[in-house]
UniProtKB/TrEMBL annotation:
<dbReference type="Pfam" id="PF10242">
    <property type="entry name" value="L_HMGIC_fpl"/>
</dbReference>
<feature type="transmembrane region" description="Helical">
    <location>
        <begin position="87"/>
        <end position="109"/>
    </location>
</feature>
<dbReference type="GO" id="GO:0016020">
    <property type="term" value="C:membrane"/>
</dbReference>
<keyword id="KW-0472">Membrane</keyword>
<dbReference type="InterPro" id="IPR019372">
    <property type="entry name" value="LHFPL"/>
</dbReference>
<keyword id="KW-0812">Transmembrane</keyword>
<protein>
    <submittedName>
        <fullName>LHPL6 protein</fullName>
    </submittedName>
</protein>
<keyword id="KW-1133">Transmembrane helix</keyword>
Length: 129
């Protein structure tokens, strides 16, 4: 297999992929904030939550649903700040993954990544991070 990357470029490609994968896993996991509510352990991230309170209308009380899930809609995310965080973090993860996969393809395909493309990809990674 021919490569368009130097030794430093190959290391950059693999580190980029590891960082992008770690960022994506962190984005999808609901463990950004941990705490307790109604004597139950709760956690939530930008668009997922675990053990959340729900109003039981038949008993006129609040009960804890002990399962993980996404918010029903984008508007169901608790605040505008968390919605912005969801969009920005999702876009950042997408950009990081795009650059990392392109860099990994550069390890296998000759003349795929030039010096200019490498610099642009580094700038995209900076924005994505």
């Amino acid at each position: 297999m021919a490569s368009s990357l130097t030794c430093a470029g190959v290391i950059w490609a693999f580190l980029s992929f590891i960082c992008a994968a770690t960022s994506c896993v962190g984005f999808f996991m609901p463990y950004w904030l941990l705490g307790s509510q109604l004597e139950k352990s709760v956690s939530f991230g930008t668009f997922r939550r675990c053990s959340y309170p729900v109003r039981d209308e038949s008993r006129q009380t609040t009960v804890m649903v002990e399962q993980c899930g996404r918010y029903a809609s984008f508007q169901a995310i608790p605040s505008a700040e968390w919605r912005i965080c969801t969009v920005v973090t999702g876009l950042g993860c997408g950009l990081l993954l795009l650059v990392a996969l392109t860099a990994l393809m550069g390890c296998c395909v000759s003349e795929l990544i030039s010096r200019t493309v490498g610099r642009v990809a580094g700038g995209i990674q900076f924005l994505g991070g």
